[in-house]
Structure formats: C-alpha cells, structure tokens
Amino acid sequence: MNLDAFGFEWPFSTFWLWTGCILFVLALLWHARVLFVSTTPRNALRLIALRIVFAGLLLFLISRPFIEKEQPDPSSIRVVSLVDLSGSMNQRDQSIDHRRLDQARKYLDLNQPNSWINRMRESFGLVQRMGFSGEDVFSLKEGSWELPQSGKPTALGTALSEILEETHTLPLAGVTVFSDGRNNLGSSPIAVGQKYLERGIPVNVIGVGQTSRSGNLSVRFVDAPVEAKAKEELGLVVEVTNSYPQSCSSTVRLLEEEDLHEEIPITVASNETRLIKFSPLVPDRAGRRNYRVMIDSLEGDDDPSDDADFRVVMIREPDLFSVLYLSNQARPIYPFIKHSLSGQSFQLSALIRLGEETFHARGEKVSPEGYPSDPDFWMQYDVVILDLECLGELNSTLVSSLRQYVEKRGGGLLTFGSPLGAREKLGGVFPALQFEEIRPKQSVSLEVDSDPLFSERKRVNQWKAFLPGGMPAFLISEQNPASLGIVGLRSDRKRSALVVQAYGSGKSAYWGSSHDWKRALLNEDRSKEFTNFWQSLVQWLGSGSVERVRLPVLDQAVPRGEMVSLNLQVLGSNFEPSMDALIDVNVSGPGDFSQQLKLFPRSGRVGSYSGEFRPSFPGSYRIGYNLRFPDGETLEETSYIRVEEHGLEAGDSRYAEQELRMLANLTGGEFVHISNLSPDWKPQLSNSLPTVKRRNDLASFWPLALALFLTAGIEWIWRRKKGLR
Asked: Which residues contact residue 228 at a Cβ distance below 8 angstroms, ignoring those fewer than 6 apart?
C-alpha cells in the first residue's frame, strides 16, 4: 500500500479556510495580551497553550482532513493455491508421521471455517483451489485426495506453466504451492519461475516434508523351494542388503502364517549383502504353507516394500504314512489291513485289546501296557484307524484330543464299527448323522466314485465292491452337510457305506463294512481292489485337507496404486465347484490400511469368484478370506502380497527443500515450511494489479472529539480556580 494523496474535505473555498485561521490567530493574540495583564505570566501561558490546542483540534475537525490510499482490489484479482498430488506426497517421512498430503490437506479443507483456504477467501474475491498429478492440472474435488495412491510422477514446472498461461477474466496476483519439491516430469520449475519473474507474479511455496537420512535395507528369499515333502526338513535362506551409507542393525524374522518360527539379530555394513540361514522347519502334514520373512523398518528407508518377502510352498504327502490301528477286540479285518499297508509307503502301528489286561502292540511308540493317557499321543501319526467300540474305554481327555488331532494338526481319522454314540463323543468330526444296521441275506452290490479318493488309473468303475451276505453292515442315511458319500448302494446311492469329509485342517471318514475283508478272498482281482481301496483311503486321509480354495498367485510385487485382482476357485462340500459361497475379504497393510470387500461369482466360470482393491502404500499386505456356505460350513484362508513403488516416483521421494526455496526466492514469493504455517498467513502478491482508492477520514476518529472535550473542560476548570472569566 502506498500513500497516494492528503487533502481536506472543507465545504467552502480555501480562501475562507485561511481567512478563518488568520482571524483566529489575531483573536488569540489579543486574548493573550489581556491574560498577561489580568493574571500571572505562568497562568497566562498555560491558558494560552490550552486555547491553542483547543483551536487546533477544532480547526482539524472543521477542515475534515483525509488520506487516500491505493491498494489492490480483492474483487478484481485471482489468487491460486496449488497442491501436489503426485505419488511422493503419499509418503511418510517417519513411521509416526501423517502422510505428506494429510499435512497439507487440513489447510485446504473447505469444511473447516478457520482453515487457511477459507481465511484467504475472506480476504480475496477469487481463490482457486487447484491440484496437479502427473501432467494434469484440475480443480480439487473430494475424490482428488486419493490420487497420490496411484503413484503418478511430479510435474511441478508443467503445472505452474499451465496456471500462468490460463485464460481468465481476472488477472493472476500470485500462486501458493504445497509440495515436497520432487520434480521428475515435464518443465523445470526454475525455468518456469523465470516467466513468473518477468510478469512480476510471486510464487509462494509451502514446503511439505522432512529432510532425513536415506538408504534402503531389504530382505528377500533366496532359492526358496516351490514344493517340499511333509516330515522332511525344509531349509529357508534369505539375503539382507544394506544400501545406507553406514552400517545398520535390525532383526530378521521368519514366520509361518502368523506364527513366529525364528528371529535373528543382524548388523549389516554399508553396501553389504549377507545370507541368513534359518534353522530347518519340518512340516508335519501336506498342504499350502505361507512363509514370510520380515525386517524392522529403518528411518529414511527409500523403499519399505522390500522390508518383507513371501513364499508359498506346497507341502506334498510324505513318502511314509504313519498309521495307527486301534481296536478293543481282534477283528478279522486287521490282518488284511496290515497286509494292504505293508508297502514302503506305510508304517503301520497297532494296539488291540485281547483280554482284560492283555494287549497286542505293534510299533515302537505303542505300549502293550494298555490304552494311552497322553493327549498328544495321536499327534505322531498321519492316520488313525479307530474301532468305534473302543471309544467308551478311552478317557474324555484322549477323545477330546482326538478331535483336535483332526481339526488342528490336520490328521486323518477313519472310524468303523457301530456308530451308536459316536456322534455324542466325537461331535462334527464324525461325518454321520443317521444310520441303519443291515444284514443282507446275500451280497449287495456297491458303487464307488472316483473323486476325491481314487484316481482314474484305479479303474474304480470296474470294481466289484459289495456288502458280504449274512454279515452285519452299517449304512449312513443322513450325513454332515460338508461330507460326501463315496461308496453307496448301487440301487440307492442315498445310503452310503463310506462317507468322507474335510474337517478343519484334516479329514475324517466312516466305513460301514468291517467285513469287507471277504472280498479279498475271492480272487486276485478282488484282492487288488481291496488293497487299492485301503491304500488310497489312507493316503487321502493322511494328505491333509483337500485344497478346496485355490488362492490367486500373487508371488510377484504389485505396483502401488494399481488395482489388485483377487480370483478364487472354490469347491463346495461335495468337492464340486461352488456357486453359492459367500466370501468376505479383509485386507490389512502398512499405514493402518484396512479394507473389507466381497468376492462375487465370475460370469461364465462356475466356482470362480473375483474382486479387487487398490493398495495405498508400499509394503506387505495380508489378505484374509472368510468363506461361508449355505449348509453352515465356514473356511478361512490367508495370502500375502508385496506392494512396491513404480515409475518415476519410485526412484527418489525425498523432501527437496532447496529447490522449493530457490523457486520462491526467484519469483519474489515467500517460502514457509508447513510446520510454521499459520491460518492467518498471507502470501506475497503482484504489485502491478488493478487497484482501488480507499479514503480514510481522519476527523471521524472518536479520540479527536474526546481530546477536544477534555481540552475545553480543563481550561474551564483552570479558569474558575484562578477566578478568571
């Protein structure tokens, strides 16, 4: 603002103003002469001084002086706020910090009455709220704040150039930029700043970010196997690389799913790569395993996405299946099972009660002293073949641990004999709900399905399975919703002799024909069928749960900001593709990222479900799948992905304050770090803009009238005290 003019708003001509002043001076001189005669010189001087002050104030009010000032017209100029929405603004300078964008967003929030942008709009007619991402410049909307998640590059110079060249009815008075200083695309901000300088338009800069040490500490699996066998040692090796300019200390952790296997403290020198070998794991059962290796994230880490690595290892069936046969009596079927499982792939142990205190024991881990009492007794076997009639002789703790053996450990349980009371003791592990006992007069033909127990090469469609005539058998007429009848009456498939199910991590089955051994005596073909049947059944039970949920393969790093597709293949309780599963997905990741979504059936693909989400930050993400089926069955699966920075923003996302200061100084603007920004802060604006004259009437100030009143009052009181008129 500049002082433009000083004048008087006197209603008459200047001649009368000066004439009045001269007459007042003459009257004051005459009055002073009288005062010096009528009182002491000291009192006269005081009264004359008061009269002069009073006359001056009165003349000031009558003449009505004013000052005219010329200043920019807020209604005739345009001010632009420009915020950086590139990928680097999605960073946190420290793990406890807010994102850079979140630090800037509160100053540009229109919903907060006292925000900086609203204070600016109170002072100026038009304050544009703009943003830029990549080479695009646009007005900010609510959805614009999510753009940094897409990881687009920074084109600060291009955005400033577009603002400068924009055609608008109002002239540009100044620009305020919120940015971290990264510029990796388009024009140079300094080159564009020269154009702003030529036009006299300041670029004010709000620095968003912190200067910190930089480098990268990464970890990854080295030569991790895709497959391994159960009960064999699995060795995992990782390498840790340090690109910091100094040595770094951290802790390397190996996890299986969410369980910590081992952690190793390490110190890695600058530019060193070290191999870390973990102690061997021994998977106890077949199935899919998620292994993760993680290190502690360090301050200034340029790429947090490689602070963790993942590998999915498919654990195959062991070369040797450990089987336990348990019964309370010597049944004729035992020697036939023993013969069928005598191959190199099976190790059969047995415990059979022969009398009150007499037991037959086979195997090193089985004691002839009687039934076991240790709840963990079952855990050393892959499959347990259990005679249901001995359930009443086992203590409740042992029966309870048998359920845990199937559900948690992933063991296989085959039951045979009378199902009476089995449901009450075993609960859902026992697959049958209703049964019937039959004793056919002659052999009854059975039909065998190939899936999921038998392969096509077993030629089960040619088997001559039957229930022996004259011998008792049990048929399941109603079974668990999640179970499947594999062997049933050829004349009525709703009545099953063999029912199987996947239960928890393991499997269970019920076989209702304990006299099937008679089939092995007929001829060599029936004997081979019997052997194939028992070997296939034991292998299926001991191989862990069927992979009813095939998870998407996400072993490659995913670019941040791009949609991640989740495609699942789901089998129902009948091991057929499911069309009616309800799938909820919970995704969690760095920066307190959390998102829930649902997967829906894919058109034209039976049993296939899909959905997608967009990761916000680089790093590791956990994806938890919760599946619910109409029959009440539930399944849970977990997978992991690694999200990394990509494109130009991945190269360097450090805070560049020096470049921002240079831009502000070059154009005559002001640099302010966001930590020092006040909502009342006003940016520097151009001097060559439309102005408006504003007049300040000096005589309208109320202190002048008060001073006039006080001067007259003091004079009157003084005169009365001295006896003067």
From this structure: 234, 283, 313, 314, 315, 316
